[in-house]
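User: Assemble these into one structure.

Assistant: Restating your components, then the assembled model:
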Amino acid sequence: MTVIQKQAVSPIAHLTPEDIEQLGVELDAIRQEFLDARGASDAAYIRKVIDVQRKIELGSRAVLLASVFPPAWIVGTIGLSISKILDNMEIGHNILHGQWDWMRDPKIHSTTWEWDNATPAAQWKHSHNELHHTYTNVIGKDNDLGYGIMRVDEDQPWHPMYLAQPLWNFINACIFEYGIAAYDLDLGATIKRKKTKDPEFRAQASKVLAKIRKQATKDYVVHPLLSLPTGSFFSTLAANVTANVVRNLWSHSIIMCGHFPEGVETFEKRSIDGETRGEWYVRQMLGSANISGSKALHIMSGNLSHQIEHHLFPDLPSNRYAQIAPKVKDLFEKYGLNYHTAPLPQQVYSAWHKVFRLSLPNGWLATTNAKNAPEKLKMLYKMATGGPKVRRAAQARLNQEARRLKAVA
Amino acid sequence: MSIALNAGGPAGPQGQTLRQLRDGVRRLTELAVTPLVPADYLDMFNPLRAGADLRGRIVDVHPETRDAATLLIKPGADWAGHVPGQYVRIGIDVDGVRQWRAYSLTHGPRRDGYISITVKAVPDGKVSNHLVHHTRPGTLVHLEQATGDFVLPEMPGKLLFVTAGSGVTPVVGMLRNLFPVADSGVVHLRRSEDLDITVVHVAPSEPDSIFIDNLRELHASRAINLIPRYDDVHGLLDVNRLDELVPDLAERATYACGPAGLLDALEAHHTERGMELFVEQFRTTFVEPGEGDQIYGVSFNDGTAVEADGATPILDAAESAGVLMPSGCRMGVCYGCVLPLREGIVRDLRNGEITKAAPGDGVKVQTCINAAAGPCEFDH
Ligand SMILES: Cc1cc2nc3c(=O)[nH]c(=O)nc-3n(C[C@H](O)[C@H](O)[C@H](O)COP(=O)(O)OP(=O)(O)OC[C@H]3O[C@@H](n4cnc5c(N)ncnc54)[C@H](O)[C@@H]3O)c2cc1C
Ligand code: FES
């Protein structure tokens, strides 16, 4: 996929500026409909989810006090994983979006909430709500695309280091909460710019470290120590590590599915200058992908399974996305746009396929088959070890081959 | 254990060790539940416990008239009591949104420690209708400690109460304290022996008259002299002819609670004659949302004040005046710009929705999509 502006046939070519503005008006109407409907049942919903999450966490922590016994370990670890996922996804992510600010409950408010995650709420809100949601899928602006460490687009020049990107992506998935924290701090760029002594960066970094220290003390010291009387120190430690990794893998997968599957569009930096409300909506519509599935999946994904609806209306309460979805889908149909949705395994596969494909030079995967594999591998080896000149020449050949292949098909 | 320790703790080394132990346990608990706090979990099981944010549970809802009801509330353990005549601010979720309103406390001395308020549903009133018609026992409400200056002095002497509509509530609270009613009837306490109380009670009609039975009972037992005035029978009360109803008006200190019109008239009347008047006003006067081309003052509690028109986001207006504002997307999606509105009125520029804040509300509003619709004060 290349940025939408460079595609031969743009998926929005058939829309006139008037269409796009009309689409915006219709989406605004949907938004208003649900703002008006919002009420006591929604408030009861989020309170219920919070209550259930806290009870699951308390219960799991209690069971883990005797985690030397394998059944206790299994039950406690599953419970703790679920509670951490609920905390981060359906509760934390959505509260921090301001989805529940309308309740005017100071205990459930985007400005007061803190979550069970390495990154402090305030910093995440900045990078996620302000940057990612405003610049969704704009190459070079939306760092969520690859978290600044990956090649996410054909137009990004290929470099041998990208060969390792599936590995990076997997490691990042395992330690996702720390990855996010580093990314919210803009750690990579700050190191590159040699700005780590900047007082503002220092202040932010010390906040992150303080949060990480608290989180780690809780999970890896206090709770294992509390389990010491039953001889469960190490098993409780292991349970906490496991639950954190499970939560990391799960949230990473859900988030990858939101913007990474094949077919989700990306946009050029220049294209968003002077963007209208209608155009902003269209970018959100084409830059997101949904996951279809059960109610449980929706809740465990923080309703990011309704990524499209979430990106259109990030501040509407998450429990409403399922009702909004059919209306949004009708609009996609009406305006001839592709509503991107598929079951979880399919979206995860698709997102990973893209990671692999872009870790290789453009066209390499498409032009490689069982017969020419040895020859292709040799070429890849040359590209990986040779200089820029070699790479450019090889890339030209690959492009030609890919074009020929397309012409035949 | 904690009670003894909280009350200063036993002296000596033993007390100190206990205190250290308790602090240690507290710190450990905090570490174990971060990023939440222990109270978040305790609240799930006992929201009325000592040390919790002040809350109350509604125990009973008892209709007084067709549009008024008394709510009996069990307050949290930290409820500090009240002086009769004072009011309590109650936060209750109506349609999922936390709303805060003030209500006078109407109970006399109670052994069970419960408190009560009496609410009259006003037309289109969000909270009053909810409390009178849709609130069930068991509902949890949020409370603040009782406050208010509408209270009697230690040695009251000769008094006149003028009450109108739901304005009878703080007065009933005072009277119930002075003359508790037992099963056997009104109890005449020694401390209330010398009181000489006249109550002019104004209501649209007799059936609309809250607490009329209580007032009649007090009248029958000679605790008070009740002069009921019903608009439909007697016509509207003319304050300038009050001395016809209360001949010794000039000797009495007047305590009045009712609609602004009545209070204003009383104020004028009493000032002119140099008489003592204490009033309680129920209705906070809100500025009506103005038009887009009007200019309003927007101030912040650090002292900065800017002028904003009704069509410009407060964020823009404040920034162009040089105020450092939190902000993000500037289009209403990120909530990076939310500030508590201490008092005032704003309009959502997207749909015209009005948000109002009375003093103390601290309603959080997005400054990037709200324009001032009247003078505003922000916490920032
Ligand atoms: C110190 C104090 C003590 C109070 N004690 C009592 C009490 O004991 N019992 C009681 O019933 N109320 C009392 N009130 C009034 C109460 O706080 C609310 O203002 C009232 O219940 C209306 O709230 P609402 O949400 O129903 O109306 P809103 O939804 O806020 O207003 C709806 C409409 O009613 C109008 N309105 C607002 N307040 C009043 C009012 N008091 N009378 C007539 N119209 C009004 C508004 O202008 C608006 O047009 C007291 C107020 C104060 C400040
Ligand atoms: S700055 Fe984003 S909501 Fe206001």
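Residues 199-226 of chain A form the longest helix (28 residues).
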